């Protein structure tokens, strides 16, 4: 009887508001591709209790090289936020994804043109075969092509296929293309493997397209996928990413970040990238993360989309 009495009192207090049961929050579902966007996210997931203490995080892999599959995932609300390039988001908006909101551009560097060590002048690439990873019509292709055109160089671009197929061609003089345009962390992986495996043909960074196009271009961005995301979730994620990028700026954290990210690329994307290559990428500052307000970066985004892609920035980028 006493137990029943206590149960009745507890129920009464609950109904009167004396007890407020703790409701578990839904996880923040964050989608990303296997490119420079991923490294800080892997660090955030590893140290979630430090950087995102009031929330849980669920990572989702973007379908590589398949915009239609990515669109279907967003329409189906398989994620709350997603990282992908700025021009891709504009095309989704133009294609009718009206719920898509730009949180902010945040990757400002991370595409490079590798040339053989013996190449002295980019003018020699005029009319030559340049391979692109992951393929044609991607930002590494368009951005690099525009950067070369501004220097009077018109190369013949072709798709490289997978990373291993590309590196098989890069190893020897007789199969090597004139140059390779690729994103990080693939660039750092190739620079590392050529030393580790003693490639016959050696490569170096011959061009930073971002610098060639004006010094700073918004390559990658963070997007909110639908309107039902609680504002506090968005605020918490933005704050966490800002803290992680600050943490990554300290060279004392590079080895740890590289170890975490190498495991993440291997386990999450099935993409083997050695930690030493990622550490070299961080030490060389070949990727720069800085989440910024779309309104504050309106001029740079409009200029980038117009001059590189010939696209007019939709007003929806700035008014949501």
TrEMBL record:
Name listed for the protein in its UniProt record = ABC-type nitrate/sulfonate/bicarbonate transport system, substrate-binding protein
């Amino acid at each position: 009887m006493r137990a029943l009495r206590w149960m009745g009192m507890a129920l009464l207090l609950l109904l009167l508001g004396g007890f407020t049961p703790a409701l578990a929050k839904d996880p923040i579902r964050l989608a990303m591709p296997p490119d420079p966007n991923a490294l800080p996210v892997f660090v955030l997931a590893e140290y979630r209790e430090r950087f995102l203490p009031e929330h849980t995080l669920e990572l989702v892999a973007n379908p590589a090289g398949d915009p239609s599959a990515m669109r279907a995932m967003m329409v189906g609300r398989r994620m709350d936020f997603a990282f992908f390039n700025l021009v891709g988001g504009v095309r989704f908006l133009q294609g009718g994804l009206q719920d898509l909101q730009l949180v902010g551009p945040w990757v400002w560097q991370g595409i490079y043109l590798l040339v053989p060590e013996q190449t002295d002048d980019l003018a020699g690439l005029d009319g030559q075969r340049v391979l692109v990873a992951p393929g044609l019509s991607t930002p590494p292709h368009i951005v690099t092509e525009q950067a070369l055109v501004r220097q009077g160089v018109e190369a013949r671009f072709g798709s490289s296929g997978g990373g291993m197929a590309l590196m098989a061609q890069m190893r020897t003089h007789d199969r090597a293309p004139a140059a390779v345009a690729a994103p990080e962390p693939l660039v750092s992986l190739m620079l590392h493997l050529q030393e580790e495996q003693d490639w016959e043909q050696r490569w170096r960074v011959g061009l930073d397209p971002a610098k060639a196009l004006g010094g700073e271009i918004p390559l990658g961005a963070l997007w909110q996928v639908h309107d039902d995301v609680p504002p506090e979730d968005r605020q918490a994620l933005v704050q966490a990413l800002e803290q992680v990028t600050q943490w990554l700026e300290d060279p004392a954290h590079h080895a740890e970040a590289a170890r975490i990210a190498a495991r993440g690329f291997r386990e999450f994307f099935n993409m083997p990238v050695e930690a030493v290559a990622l550490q070299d990428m961080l030490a060389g500052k070949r990727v720069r993360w800085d989440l910024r307000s779309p309104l504050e970066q309106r001029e740079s985004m409009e200029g980038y989309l117009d001059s590189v892609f010939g696209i007019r920035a939709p007003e929806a980028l700035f008014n949501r």
